[in-house]
């Protein structure tokens, strides 16, 4: 598999370099060897939480995890998340959550993401609004502490050497980010207008960029940054926010929310370009998850999926989503617990798992589209994401 991506990538570079007349072509600055990332450090929200919020506030209930792990596994999905496929794709074990103190092995990385995380700390409690107290600034503090303490404890030897990353892994690791969606919905939940939410988007990117810069100052070099998804297509948004018929696009998504997501993504892409200038040794890959998720809603059938707006696991309503009885919800009847928000028969043909998060099948499909560098800027395969790409302002091949 490795060789295949490598071959395709070299081929791709040649095409780009010779076929483009005026636009700048992208080429490697160094070699075309795979990076052999020894670790992944992930920052994010529920899209990449592998057990953080579960460790802090209680397990994601069954039937979460049923397809792949066969029991709840700290993930809001029936199975693997995109971050799990990324770990697999790099030949690394699944990431344990930093917050998970039982049975965790951090020798090949750690996951700081928690469900409900935002870039900016919220002024509401989790009780009030559902957002996680582990916002990105907190995740950075945890990462920094993890970095220092890994060093101290590995030096003690024994079991610590087997459970914590080697010092050089911190500079050789892939740093992945998938965060921002909750910052947008936080504004809508406070009844802010689209314009009011847009107004604070630049601040979100300043804060996200500062975290990347801080990780860089601690030695991080390879950054893989997912943009935010079409939140206006999620049953969770369609059910909760006031939307007029005129605001629904031809596929069934709420345009205003998607427009703000795209605005965030435009600014995120610009922030990536600025970071490449500011951090001369960093390789920064921006990954267009939005387009892929949107395609799943718009052209579900074409890719083997059915009824993309209907949650697989839920309870009633137009979208099989009820904010008061989410996936895994139970009621007690005659002293017996009954699961009222259960899984659909075949999650492998569904896009949305619980009204908010994607199924393993959808995550797998998205991974297959991004792994070879398609939908990435620069168009670099996952295994090559340590290579900084230079922009040449003519079409000559580098020596
Ligand atoms: C929280 O409140 C502070 C002080 O008013 C403000 O500066 C900050 O932007 C607020 N944060 C959010 C996410 O609204
Ligand atoms: C942690 O995981 C690594 C890699 O999978 C393995 O080599 C190591 O033995 C594990 N440590 C423990 C204590 O199980
Ligand atoms: C937002 O508006 C709704 C409907 O008018 C209201 O019920 C809710 O309390 C408001 N929320 C906030 C945070 O102001
Ligand atoms: C990348 O993989 C996807 C999915 O397999 C495929 O459709 C696409 O053509 C590939 N792109 C390149 C540049 O190889």
TrEMBL record:
Keywords: Glycoprotein, Hydrolase, Signal. InterPro entries: GDSL, SGNH_hydro_sf, SGNH_plant_lipase-like. GO terms for molecular function: hydrolase activity, acting on ester bonds. PROSITE patterns: PROKAR_LIPOPROTEIN. Belongs to the 'GDSL' lipolytic enzyme family. This is Alpha-L-fucosidase.
């Amino acid at each position: 598999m490795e060789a295949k991506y490598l071959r395709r990538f070299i081929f791709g570079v040649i095409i780009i370099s010779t076929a483009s007349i005026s636009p700048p072509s992208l080429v490697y600055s160094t070699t075309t060897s795979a990076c052999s990332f020894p670790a992944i450090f992930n920052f994010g929200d529920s899209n990449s939480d592998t057990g953080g919020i579960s460790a802090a506030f209680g397990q994601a209930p069954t039937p979460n995890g049923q397809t792949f792990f066969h029991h709840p596994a700290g993930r809001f999905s029936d199975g693997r998340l995109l971050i799990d496929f990324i770990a697999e794709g790099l030949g690394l074990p699944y990431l344990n959550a930093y917050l998970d103190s039982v049975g965790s092995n951090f020798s090949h990385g750690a996951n700081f993401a928690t469900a409900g995380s935002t870039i900016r700390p919220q002024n509401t409690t989790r009780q009030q609004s559902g957002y996680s107290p582990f916002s990105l600034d907190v995740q950075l503090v945890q990462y920094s502490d993890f970095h220092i303490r890994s060093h101290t404890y590995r030096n003690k030897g024994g079991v610590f050497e087997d459970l914590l990353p080697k010092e050089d892994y911190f500079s050789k690791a892939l740093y992945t980010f998938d965060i921002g969606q909750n910052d947008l919905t936080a504004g809508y939940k406070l009844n802010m207008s689209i314009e009011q939410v847009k107004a604070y988007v630049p601040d979100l990117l300043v804060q996200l960029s500062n975290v990347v810069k801080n990780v860089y100052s601690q030695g991080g070099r390879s950054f893989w940054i997912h943009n935010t998804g079409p939140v206006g297509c999620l049953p969770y948004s369609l059910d909760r926010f006031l939307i007029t018929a005129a605001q629904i696009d031809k596929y069934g998504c709420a345009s205003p929310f998607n427009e703000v997501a795209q605005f965030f993504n435009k600014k995120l892409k610009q922030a990536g370009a600025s970071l490449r200038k500011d951090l001369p040794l960093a390789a920064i890959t921006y990954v267009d998850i939005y387009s892929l998720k949107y395609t799943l809603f718009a052209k579900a059938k074409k890719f083997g999926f059915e009824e993309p707006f209907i949650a697989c696991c839920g309870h009633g309503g137009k979208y099989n989503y009820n904010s008061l009885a989410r996936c895994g919800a139970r009621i007690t009847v005659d002293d017996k617990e009954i699961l009222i928000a259960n899984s659909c028969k075949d999650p492998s043909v569904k896009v949305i798992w619980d009204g908010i998060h994607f199924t393993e099948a959808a995550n797998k499909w998205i991974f297959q589209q991004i792994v070879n560098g398609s939908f990435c800027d620069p168009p670099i395969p996952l295994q090559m994401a340590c290579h900084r790409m230079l922009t040449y302002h003519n079409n000559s091949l580098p020596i």
